[in-house]
Structure formats: structure tokens, C-alpha cells
């Protein structure tokens, strides 16, 4: 299965309700700080929307809920890997994307046979505080050389204008949050992303 080259990330299913009709084909639901019933409700709604629109849904962090709700994909960071039951996740048939930021993290990720590897932040990100300032495009090329055919996701400070450089450097997929959600017209921005990546 080939993942779409445009990978928007939203923090609430209401974003997905708005953006699904525009034609996105891949999305991550990255909800933070919500009680479990709310998480469960949002993931279930996202699953229905994605099924009806032919969108691949990737659930961030909540691997148990993703398993319970029979989702297909999860995204895990290094701290998530510390607590995730990888054997159970694989038994459930879930596909997995893993975040990486340095060589040790990449080696650890590759040990889990990931379905994609994310490298970030490629550019400075305003979304969250991170110990890495910016990795740069050269590191994307280095990562692509190391992971070969495993899809490589570029994340962190990505924009429509920066996407071509990331693809040229070796990314297969480009992911973005604030370039869309903080834009004056998020719908227009998603349309621009779709034009730039199709
Ligand atoms: C595509 C993608 N790449 C990286 C991340 C970050 O995951 P993580 O390090 O676990 O941090 P949180 O997003 O959970 O704060 C991601 N979510 N998606
Ligand atoms: C959630 C996340 N993870 C990152 C990583 O490097 O692992 S960067 C990032 C934030 C992405 O948001 P924006 O597109 O607004 O910069
Ligand atoms: Mg996480």
C-alpha cells in the first residue's frame, strides 16, 4: 500500500470533517490531553469519515484504543515505544509509523520493522518544544540512504513552499500541522498542498 505524499495532522476530528471533502487521502489524528471517552469517540468518528472517503487514518499515541477500535495504522514516538506492547500491536495487524531524530532512535525504530519512518523537525517548529532545533534537508537525504525503500516522512516546520525541497532531498511524504491549522484559510491551504503534491 502506497501512502499519499501529503500527510496533514489534526488535533480534533472536526478538522477532519472540514478537510475530508477536499480530497486528502492520508491523515493523522493527534489529540492531546483529552479523557478516554472523548478520545474513543473522536477516533471512532475519524474512522468512519476516513472509511467513507477513502482516507488512510493514522492514530497518534493511543495504540490500545486503535487496537480496540480496529484501526489500521498508529504513529509512535520514542517515548511511546517505551510503553507500547509491540507484539500485541503486530498481532492485531496494525501498521506503524515511528518518529526519529538521531541515529540511535533510527536504529531502534528499524528494529521494529516500521511501515514508515519520520524525521523531524526538518525546519524549526512552532507546535511544540523540542530538543532538536532543525535537522535540515541534508539529514533527510542521509536518512533516505539509510532506510532505502521504507517510506520517509518529513515533519517539522514544513510548508507548501518547502515541500518540493524535502521531496528532492529524499522524503516520500511531507507532513504538516500549523502550516494548515494556523493559516487564515485552512481550506485554501489544503488545496494548495494537494496541488503541490499530486
Ligand atoms: C508523522 C509524525 N512524525 C512525528 C511525530 C511525533 O511523534 P512523538 O515524538 O511521539 O510526539 P507527539 O506527536 O506524540 O507529541 C508525529 N506525531 N507524527
Ligand atoms: C508533532 C511533531 N513531531 C515532530 C518531530 O520532529 O518528531 S515535529 C512536530 C510538529 C509538526 O508541526 P508543524 O508542521 O506545525 O511544525
Ligand atoms: Mg507520541
Automatic annotation (TrEMBL):
User: What GO cellular component is one of the record's annotations?
Assistant: cytoplasm
Q: Which Pfam families does this UniProt record tie to the protein?
A: TMP-TENI
**Which cofactors is this protein said to need?**
Mg(2+)
Q: What is its EC number?
A: 2.5.1.3
Q: Which keywords are on file for this protein?
A: Magnesium, Metal-binding, Thiamine biosynthesis, Transferase
Family, per the entry?
A: Belongs to the thiamine-phosphate synthase family.
Task: Give the protein's recorded name.
Answer: Thiamine-phosphate synthase
Which species is the source of this protein? Answer: Roseovarius litoreus
